[in-house]
């Protein structure tokens, strides 16, 4: 049991949180030249699927050579360093899918309602990227290659869609609880303030103000959680334990 | 003299408005596989320059094969269709730059102040993408290849940084002027409302409400403008002409 998400889990969480990226293919002219294009995707399990026109440059490239990679980057946040954003490059081969059109269309249009208007056009079809390897960069200095099996096996963080709301709630309404976590559970006696800056299925991160400057701390949940309600119960238990220690 | 910006001008304007993109290179392993990565750029004239570490995957790829392309996409706007955003793929070769380090550093760090912290690290160096061709996609159905010379010659729209402010001002404070443009200069007699949805050096775009539904209209400035003050004067002259026609 890891106290922090694995890189495979971080990459799967990132893929699940976004729906657009950059596809690298090999151009026809000049032949073999790397070509980057913008496109939207949905996920069929761990595999990205695309609904693309036969007329598009990337599709023409793939018809000639199926090798491709898909780059997905965390959403832009005002004022944040571009290179601090997490990103993943999924490397593999991209081929048209012949079966299962109705299921793929439902799945794709659920993620991209605007695609309904062209999903049935004769020149549009579904393609799947079969991933053979993943390059994950979680910001400065946190990077690795992930093999395809670990990537397929990992699960996106079930808390990710709720994480922002949890942070806002904890920092706005429970700053005292955050400070108790920092003092009692992270053992930072001199903490004067603590802000929750991240939460995932395995635990949460605090940025703690001390007389020596800011410090970060990671606290693990006793067992992984999967719903916002589980988080709430666990955080209440943890603040009781923290206050008992400080009493 | 064109009444709307050329694709080369639109691509140059897009490049000037952004500072990050996706670089496609050719991987070392598996050899020749297209590889997409996230990076930041600055512009030296029409050429993107990068400050990258020798240790990064894309740099290792470029050291083996300089062929590359850079995809730049318009910023995300809440609620807007991802495929409606303009984008450009700059195709060329990317090589290290040996001369002019101080000038490039000043230029790059002006656009990316955070880069000052690592600009002098021994493993970081400047690279330039020499552009041989550009693929421009301005949204649904507006796309073309632009040759390198036309791209280099084109100038970014000098109004682009001010355009959003001009639209807000015109729509908030001069809705009557917009309606006069629509009725008198675009000759849409039945216009009941007109919203300015775009402005550039050559003119502006209106979305006009009529009893038969919305219509778009493009109105050219009598001569191209290059400053917000020129736009203001020109729009005042145009509303006088419009009102004289309607009187």
Quick structural gist:
The structure is a homodimer of 247-residue chains. Chain A has seven helices and eleven strands.
Q: What would you report as the Rg of chain A, rounded to the nearest angstrom?
A: 22 Å
Average the pLDDT over all residues of chain A and give the rounded result. 95
Reported for the largest beta sheet of chain A, the result is: 8 strands, antiparallel
Give the low-confidence spans of chain A: none
Q: Strand fraction band of chain A?
A: 25-35%
Q: Helix coverage percent of residues of chain A? A: 25-40%
Order of helices and strands of chain A: HEEEEHEEHEEHHHEEEH
Total number of helices of chain A: 7
For the termini of chain A, the CA-CA separation is: 31 Å
Name the chain pair with the biggest interface and residue counts per chain: A-B, 39 and 39 residues
Quaternary state of the chains: homodimer
**What structural class results from the helix and strand content of chain A?**
alpha+beta
Kindly state the number of beta strands of chain A: 11
The shape of chain A is: elongated
């Amino acid at each position: 049991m890891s106290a922090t998400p694995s890189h495979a889990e971080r990459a799967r969480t990132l893929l699940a949180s976004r729906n657009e990226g950059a596809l690298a293919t090999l151009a026809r002219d000049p032949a073999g030249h790397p070509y980057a294009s913008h496109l939207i995707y949905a996920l069929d399990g761990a595999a990205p699927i695309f609904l693309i026109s036969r007329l598009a440059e990337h599709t023409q490239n793939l018809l000639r050579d199926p090798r491709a990679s898909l780059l997905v980057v965390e959403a832009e946040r005002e004022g944040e360093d571009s290179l601090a954003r997490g990103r993943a490059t999924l490397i593999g081969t991209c081929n048209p899918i012949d079966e299962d059109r109705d299921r793929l269309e439902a799945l794709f249009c659920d993620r991209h309602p605007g695609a309904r208007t062209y999903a049935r056009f004769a020149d549009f079809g579904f393609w799947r990227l079969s991933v053979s390897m993943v390059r994950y960069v979680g910001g400065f200095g946190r990077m690795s290659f992930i093999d395809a099996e670990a990537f397929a096996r990992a699960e996106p963080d079930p808390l990710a869609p709720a994480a922002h709301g949890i942070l806002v709630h904890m920092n706005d309404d429970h700053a005292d609880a955050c400070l108790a976590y920092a003092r009692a559970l992270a053992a930072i006696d001199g903490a004067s303030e603590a802000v929750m800056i991240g939460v995932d299925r395995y635990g949460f991160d605090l940025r703690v103000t001390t007389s020596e400057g800011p410090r970060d701390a990671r606290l693990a949940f006793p067992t992984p959680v999967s719903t916002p309600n589980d988080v709430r119960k666990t955080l209440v238990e943890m603040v009781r334990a923290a206050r008992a220690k400080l009493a």
